[in-house]
Design goal:
The chain has helices at residues 2-13, 29-34, 51-61, 75-83, and strands at 24-26, 43-45, 65-66, 87-88. The protein is α/β, with parallel strands linked by helices and 89 residues long. The termini are far apart. The mean pLDDT is 96. The relative contact order is 0.15. The chain is built from four helices and four strands; from the N terminus they run αβαβαβαβ. It is elongated, with a radius of gyration of 13 Å. Strands 1-2 form a two-stranded parallel ribbon. It has a two-stranded parallel ribbon with strand order 3-4. The chain has one domain (2-88). Helix content is 43%, strand content 11%.
């Protein structure tokens, strides 16, 4: 019931401003696709050992950035996101 869940989340987050007060983080990028009540610029996929794949998704979908442990994020990936104005880490 994604629509119902989106409605519930929208009500819970209503007093807050996306990007300013919160970002939505997920280890599963498919979950971010299901969240419709907030713009992609307030979403951050979190990488474990799939940083390269999630990096491409984050850049293509214009997410707020890419989360993950710095040891798993190659300098090239970090630079790409920072150059696009995305958050990293």
């Amino acid at each position: 019931q994604p629509e119902k869940q989106n409605m519930i989340l929208k009500e819970l987050f209503a007093p807050l401003k996306p990007r300013e007060d919160f970002h939505l983080l997920s280890l599963d990028p498919e979950m971010l696709v299901l969240v419709k009540f907030v713009d992609t610029s307030a979403k951050i996929p979190v990488a474990d050992f799939n940083a390269k794949t999630l990096s491409k998704i984050s850049l293509n979908e214009k997410y707020a950035g890419l989360g993950g442990h710095y040891l798993l994020l190659h300098k090239k990936i970090v630079k790409q996101h920072l150059d696009c104005g995305q958050k990293i880490g």
